Amino acid sequence: MRITQGxxxxxxxxxxxxxxxxxxYAIDRGWAVAVEFTDDPHPRNVLWEMWGLPMFELSDASxxxxxxxxxxxxxxxxxVRVSAxxxxxxxxxxxxxxxxxxxxxxxxxRLDRAEACDRRISYALHPYAADQxxxxxxxxxxxxxx
Amino acid sequence: xxxxxxxxxxxxxxxxxxxxxxxxLPADALVDLDEEGKALQISGLLERLDAEFVGLTPxxxxxxxxxxxxxxxxxxxxxxxxxxxxxxxxxFTGSPGTGKTTMAMHMGxxxxxLGYLRKGQLVTATRDDxxxxxxxxxxPKTKEVLKRAMGGVLLIDEAYYLYRPDNExxxxxxxxxxLLQFMEAxxxxxxxxxxxxxxxxxxxxxxxxxxASRIGHHIDFPDxxxxxxxxxxxxxxxxxxxxxxxxxxxxxxEYVGLRMRQPRFAGARxxxxxxxxxxxxxxxxxxxxxxxxxxxxxxEITEADVRGSRVFGDGTQPILPARPGExxxxxxxxxxxxxxxxxx
Lengths: 146, 344
Prior knowledge:
The complex is a heterodimer of chains A (146) and B (344).
Chain A: H1 16-28, E1 32-38, E2 49-55, H2 61-74, E3 79-86, E4 93-101, E5 109-115, E6 121-127
Antiparallel strand pairs in A: 1-2, 1-3, 3-4, 5-6
Chain B: H1 14-21, H2 33-40, H3 42-52, H4 57-78, E1 90-94, H5 100-114, E2 122-125, H6 127-130, H7 138-149, E3 153-157, H8 172-185, E4 191-196, H9 198-207, H10 209-214, E5 217-221, H11 226-239, E6 243-244, H12 246-260, H13 267-289, H14 295-299, E7 300-301, H15 303-307
Parallel strand pairs in B: 1-4, 1-5, 2-3, 3-4, 6-7
Helix pairs in contact in B: 3-4, 7-8, 11-12, 11-13
């Protein structure tokens, strides 16, 4: 099941050129670009691991693309996304966020039903991937951060 | 927001797309070099370079060659011959005030217009910006600067300060290594320009041979002669909207000749300082005279303003103003407002 978080997620995967063009768009608007990764696909998992610091004052997308490539290489089989922060509002506001790399196979989610007090039924979303410990979820046991 | 995939893919400059679209020529066809050059507007660019910079022949020559290579490469591409981007890292050496930093600032723009750089922005870095203060601090710091410079020019002014031979635990060496690695791996993305004085740069390269060999263009900036310096002075005055009286022009030429023989002469920078002091003396003269002034009075610099400089002294006066109370304090012309700077 293909997860759809962030911008462009209903489109086919972006090519490197398209990712570069989107990053350039963000840079041209004066947004700081950050690369983040995770292997927990839960929709409420909004705070992903940061790949280095956000990149401020870039002029050219190639620098950010370099980091995207490095992150994907270091964390294969992980979700990697690019976020662009718009600081013009005086607070850190995500202006653009899109997934640039995803695992080859995404097993999807199951719904867990639980009976709470007074026989009320509550439901929880459980990613099948989360059955495995972090780092081994998508068939790519991973060592140290690259 | 433009839809991804709707436009041309990638952040490549549009010129590349146009290149690919052009049909390939058979091996025996001929192309017109002049016409191709006109299309790229290279001659206009070189003329502007000539007009903006006085002297600096070796630099102009190198830029002309780089532009010519671009032109030839484009023609080669039409015959399906390979053409790789040349390494454009440069090292500018020369005496103080020969235009190294100024030229480096323009280089980004030039290379961008020639199509070698995607953005052409200039990022200036000194030792401070590259070298960290504790273990593990240098690499991220250097990389951040390099990332900012990608697509443009990274100017490292006085690059020899990066390397401190007297301290082997200095983090400068680490910065140099990262720099070298980036210069090699991202040749297409960024141009590194090292600028500094010739002798110290030579020492720097001797201790970092890898750096010298990775820089394709070692350009030595020649010293300006009197004619060049006069042209620079005239341009500066024009920019500031001042005019030399005929007598002042003669005096200024004499001044430049004298000043060049004095210690601590710093090329065009000395000329710029001298012009600042000319303005001071002119203002002092006008204020001292009082009364009504016309626009012409405000614009004109007279011979007396130029001759007021201590460079025209009888040679017995010290070049540096002595400390107050010490003997040998030079006698300033009465017109002068405040003590002059060291070199006039």
